[in-house]
Amino acid sequence: MPHPITVGMDGSPESLDAADWAAREARWRQTPLRLVHAWMLPPQTARTAQAPEVRKAWAHKTLDDAEADLAARYPDVSVSTELLAETAVPALVAHGAGSQMLVLGSRGRGAVAGFLLGSIGLHVLGRAACPVVLVRHGGGGQAQGAAGGDVVVGIQDPPGAAAPIEFAFATAAARGTGVRAVRAWALPPVFEYGMAYVRALDEAGGIEPGERKRLAQAVLLWREKYPQVPVTEHVEMGNAAEVLLTSAAGAGLVVIGRYSHRSAVGPRLGHVAHALLHHAACPVAVVPHD
Fold it and tell me: Is 210 in a helix, a strand, or coil?
């Protein structure tokens, strides 16, 4: 049996939209859908919250209602639920480890919603071993049979980081859409202009042609593996976040990578990820890679 797509539920409109988006993705990929709710609260929060039995009963009803709704609208998708007596971060990270992806709701343009509020969301995004997809309320709402626009993937340094590119191509293949591979570049600092750098520029015909060549090399393997997926390659000089946000207009999904190793101060997301998570109109997939 294929690994499921897992959705973190908290009863918010954002998480319900995330579940709907994930159900469509599960149908395209022909994979099971799993809805999970971690109803335990950290000690500092639990003291002022409702009684545990009340929270558990509400969480159970939230999952049951979501399962019934999705089963009625997506009868060809196998939907299951799990009520977890755990706090959000370890539960979501653990269940994401055995999933094709973990799907969560996001308000965008501000604080992240529900169980993703503040540092909890950053910890999930920074620790999950699988791709994490953030779906804005109203931002993933294509019609049930529609795949939306192309899948946009940011090609970063190293440009050959495979996991985000493969995720983008696999998603586009399942949906029957194309991939738009985007690479932003900027002029290097003056101190990098050594003889070796100048020779490399001469061989490539200039900076931008060299960047186009790097982009083409990065997606070549995946073009061959997914020959049915149309590919558009776009190279642009500018800030990476701005270039990707512009390219994401009209997209069905935008995919970016993050390094899977943790820094000394804990899990972190770069400025490009933050910009997309807060401002992209479409769902955003953050894919860990080495």
Answer: helix
- Cβ of 224: how many Cβ atoms within 10 Å? 8
In the sheet with 231-237, reading across from the earlier edge strand, the strands are: 79-84, 33-38, 5-8, 101-106, 132-136, 284-289, 253-259, 151-154, 179-185, 231-237
CB atoms within 10 A of CB 43: 8
Topology of 151-289 in CATH?
Rossmann fold (3.40.50)
Total-model pTM: 0.86
User: Domain extents for the chain?
Assistant: 5-136, 151-289
Mean pLDDT calculated for residue range 116-125: 63
Residues 6+ apart with CB under 8 A from 46: 40, 52
Helix, strand, coil fractions of the chain, as percent rounded to 5: 45, 20, 35
Domain 5-136 has CATH 2.40.40.20: no
